[in-house]
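Two quick folds needed for the group meeting slides. Do the first one here.
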Amino acid sequence: MIKTRLSTFLTCLVKNLHIRLYYSLSELTTGLISLLLGFFISTGLSTIPGQTGDWGIIAASLIVAATELTSKIIYSNQRKLNIKINLINNFKIGITYGLFVDAFKLGS
């Protein structure tokens, strides 16, 4: 096969597309697992301290402090974030979403 600029361009395009899709899909799956793990953990965070009655305020303040600290770390940087920081952010979003769902379940 003759190496033309078009064939070289298409070969490089296919290689780059394969690499980007592979890493994007692995980041997507780990992000979804982190989000669902946060949703699962939020159920325990809302029920376990509520059983004793005296840990509710302490648990809520720890959750709010962790959420605010994570938000400060993530949204203060303008550079591209590390995948570990994105996973922590997805975990935080999962916890927040799970607590909202539990609040709606208790309110109905």
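Then this one, please, same format:
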Amino acid sequence: MENINDNKFFRSARQRAGKILDNRERLLNLLKASGDKIKEIDLTKMRENKFVDRLKVIIRMVKAYKNGEYRGVQIQNILLLVAALLYFVTPIDLIPDFIPITGFVDDFAVVVWVYSRLQEEIDKFILWEKQTAD
């Protein structure tokens, strides 16, 4: 995917992200659905790359933001992370997820693109996690 923003399914996810972030129950459902779907992926060869780890970091970051624990990120970037999770859990997108392994290719591309775009902020979050764990 050369330009993720050209993907109509991701654009739709971005438009819905704000409403989800504003609704605690819907956000918790999204985070749970993301975690459940990660468990499905763990059974495939996808776990051999950093895809699952990246998703887990995104989930933790969104959760910490929503709980008011972490504020070192701009709201538009949290919305981008929520959109990536929403795209990930939506079974019908550019490549439907029911197609074995191939169905995750577009999900992978979106998550990698968002993660790469926000790498600096995500690195700061990971550092914050380590510091608060001590």
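Slide caption for protein two: Residues 4-133 form one domain.
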